[in-house]
């Protein structure tokens, strides 16, 4: 199992950024998705280095942020263990759809109001999420998303500039544009948490101050494992239903 998780074929891509970041993301995804159960021991650094073909220094650099994020704990003598209480529980979504598709499935017409778009210097969060090397810029597109003319969500999408060289060209659906270039995501990880909406957000969404909202963070991948989208969204709490199919683990 560890062999499968760590084998570079499953996660290492040529232009996916520094290898320690790629290994970090692989381990983070495996832990937060529940594929590595709480309490599971990670192999010793030396073995991870062998399985991945990376140096021990690189392996250590990948594991350190997992310790800082509270996803694993390290104790002398017992090595590195997946934390018993992983900070956020993640539900896997069965279908990867765009806002436009979600709304049309509900019989609503999707539209957008542009808040910001262009090429910018990336924030540290964007650099890590998209695996950007230093000195590289990022494409951003921030939109108020409406359904049937009613504001539903504020979405801040960040993409590598070789995937989206000109954000100004996105007029309707981002995923349609990515699809045309053969870069539509095939897999995504999504984190959802509750928030109390900030003044600016309630104004944009046109709902009462103090309303509850959903904070949704989506990291999307294309075939081959490269991250092509990191989007942070704020949804009206009453506007989005999130359905996950659950199955018993093992009989
Ligand atoms: C969804 C995605 C967002 C994606 C957008 C593309 C969530 C939480 N987010 O809203 O990550 O960028 O769809 O929509 O579901 P579009 O193709 O209609 O522009």
Please characterize this protein's 3D structure.
This protein has 251 residues and is an alpha+beta fold. It has helices spanning 2-6, 19-32, 45-52, 56-68, 99-105, 124-130, 174-180, 199-205; strands at residues 72-75, 79-82, 110-120, 138-147, 150-160, 187-196, 212-221, 227-236. The protein has two domains: 2-82, Arc Repressor Mutant, subunit A (Orthogonal Bundle); 89-243, 3-Layer(aba) Sandwich (Chorismate lyase). The strands form two sheets. It has a six-stranded antiparallel β-sheet. The protein has a two-stranded antiparallel sheet with strand order 1-2. Helix 2 (19-32) packs across helix 4 and helix 3 (45-52) crosses helix 4. The longest helix has 14 residues, at 19-32. The two termini are 19 Å apart. Mean pLDDT is 87; it is low at 86-92. It binds 2-acetamido-2-deoxy-6-O-phosphono-alpha-D-glucopyranose.
Summed up, the helix count is 8
User: What integer is the average pLDDT?
Assistant: 87
- What is the chain-wise order of helices and strands? HHHHEEHEHEEHEHEE
Could you say which overall geometry the principal axes of the C-alpha atoms support? globular
CATH class categorisation of the largest domain: Alpha Beta
Bound compounds, please?
A: 2-acetamido-2-deoxy-6-O-phosphono-alpha-D-glucopyranose
- Characterize the main sheet: 6 strands, antiparallel
Tell me the strand order in the biggest sheet: 3-4-5-8-7-6
